[in-house]
Design brief:
Largest sheet: 16 strands, mixed
InterPro entries: Aspartic_peptidase_A1, PEPTIDASE_A1, Peptidase_aspartic_dom_sf, TAXi_C, TAXi_N
Family: Belongs to the peptidase A1 family.
Distance between the termini: 30 Å
Radius of gyration: 20 Å
CATH architecture of the largest domain: Beta Barrel
Strand content: 35-45%
Number of helices: 5
Keywords: Signal
Protein name: Peptidase A1 domain-containing protein
Length: 358
C-alpha cells in the first residue's frame, strides 16, 4: 500500500492545495510527521506493512482538523476520521514514537485525500515529493495543483508529467487501496535487460506479479529472476575502472568502490535506468541519486534489492527511488504521473514554501 508513517500537520497554501510536511526518519528510513492518539474511540482493522500484519485492534476516532492558511484564516473539518494502533505488536519496526499509519488508499472512505475531497475546493488528487534528506522535510500536495517549489524562483513541478494508468489487482487482499502500474520492460544504459515478461503482469490466479508502488519499502524490491538480470546488466554498464566490493550490509546484493565514480548534478555517474511503462516512449528515468546509496566513505551499493518473500508483486517501487521526484496520484482519472528528478532544476522536494511551513 502507499502508506506513510505520519499523523496530520497540514497547512493551506492556496484555495486548491494543502501542504503536508513529511520527514524521513534516519534510523528506519520511514516517512513521518507526528504521533498521537485519542480517548473514547472504537476499533477498526489496521495494518503494519513493516511486519505484514493485520489486527482488529486499531483505534478509530474523529477530531477537529484545523488547517492554517497564509493570511491567517483557519479552515476546519469538524469530524475528521483517523485510526491509530493500540496493540504493542502493531507498532513493531515503526519509527520511535509512531502510533499509526496514514493511508492514501484509492477508494477507502477514510483515506486522507478522500476525506479532504469532501470539501468542494479539493479534488481526489495528490502529489508526493519525498526529500532525500533526514534533516529537511519533503511534502505531500493535496489538491489539483499547481505544486510549487523554489530554486529560488517559484516553479510548478506538476508541469511536464508523464502519466500511466492505474492497474487493478483484483486478487489482492486490499484490492481498492493499492497502486499498481504496468511496467513493460527495464533498460540500463539504454539497453533492454532480458526479463521473463510474464512476471511483469499480475497473475490472475494469485496475488503475485505486476508492479506496485509502496513508500513502506525503503528500496525497490525485484523478483529474483528480474534482480539477477538487473544486477548483471548494471555491472556490465559500470565503468571498467570501478571495482566490485563485498557488501557491508546484508540487504544489498551489489556494492562497488566509489573512488572512481564522478558526481554530477543528478548524483553519482552510474548507468541510467529507464522503467518503461505502457509504451516504449513512456519511461521513467532513474539517475544515480536514486539508483545507488553511499553506505560508507568509499563504497556505494545498488539501491535495488532481491525479493525474499513469495506471493509478492514482481516489482515493488520503494521510497529511495521516489525521493526528489514528484508523483501525482490522479484518482478520478485512474492514473499516476511521474516527474523527472528535481536535481537538474537545482531544487528539491524540501524547497516548498518554507515561509508558510517554517
Amino acid at each position: 500500500m502507499l502508506l506513510l508513517f505520519l499523523l496530520l500537520n497540514i497547512f493551506l497554501c492556496s484555495s486548491e492545495v494543502l501542504y503536508l510536511p513529511v520527514t524521513k526518519d534516519a534510523s528506519t528510513l520511514q516517512y513521518i510527521t507526528e504521533p498521537g492518539c485519542n480517548n473514547n474511540s472504537c476499533y477498526i482493522w489496521g495494518e503494519n506493512p513493516m511486519i505484514d500484519w493485520f489486527d482488529d485492534s486499531a483505534e478509530i476516532a474523529d477530531d477537529v482538523l484545523v488547517i492554517g492558511s497564509t493570511p491567517g484564516v483557519r479552515v476546519t473539518w469538524p469530524r475528521f476520521i483517523f485510526a491509530c494502533f493500540v496493540s504493542p505488536n502493531m507498532v513493531r519496526l515503526l519509527a520511535n514514537g509512531v502510533t499509526g499509519i496514514a493511508g492514501f488508499g484509492r477508494e477507502s472512505p477514510i483515506s486522507i485525500p478522500n476525506q479532504l475531497a469532501l470539501d468542494p475546493r479539493f479534488t481526489k488528487k495528490f502529489g508526493i515529493c519525498l526529500s532525500s534528506s533526514t534533516t529537511s522535510r519533503g511534502v505531500i500536495f493535496i489538491g489539483s495543483g499547481p505544486y510549487y517549489v523554489y530554486n529560488p524562483k517559484k516553479i510548478d513541478i506538476s508541469n511536464n508529467i508523464l502519466y500511466t494508468k492505474l492497474i487493478a489487482n483484483k486478487n489482492a487482499f486490499l484490492v481498492t487501496q493499492e497502486y499498481y502500474i504496468q511496467v513493460s520492460s527495464i533498460k540500463i544504459a539504454g539497453q533492454d535487460i532480458p526479463l521473463n515478461k510474464t512476471l511483469l503482469s499480475i497473475n490472475k490466479k494469485d496475488i503475485d506479479g505486476g508492479t506496485r508502488i509502496s513508500t513502506a519499502s525503503p528500496y525497490t524490491i525485484l523478483h529474483p529472476s528480474i534482480y539477477y538480470a538487473f544486477k548483471t546488466a548494471f555491472i556490465n554498464a559500470l565503468p571498467k575502472n570501478v571495482a566490485l566490493v563485498e557488501s557491508p550490509m546484508k540487504q544489498f546484493g551489489l556494492c562497488f568502490s566509489s573512488k572512481n565514480i564522478k558526481i554530477t548534478n543528478v548524483g553519482p555517474d552510474v548507468p541510467v535506468i529507464d522503467i518503461v511503462l505502457h509504451k516504449p516512449s513512456a519511461f521513467w528515468r532513474i539517475y544515480g541519486t536514486n539508483s545507488v546509496v553511499q553506505v560508507s566513505k568509499d563504497v556505494m551499493c545498488l539501491a535495488f534489492v532481491k525479493q525474499d518473500e513469495e506471493r509478492e508483486p514482481s516489482i515493488v517501487i520503494g521510497g529511495h527511488q521516489l525521493e526528489e521526484n514528484l508523483l501525482i496520484f490522479d484518482l478520478p482519472g485512474k492514473k499516476i504521473g511521474f516527474g523527472s528528478s528535481l536535481k537538474p532544476q537545482q531544487t528539491s522536494c524540501s524547497q516548498y514554501d518554507n515561509t508558510i511551513l517554517g
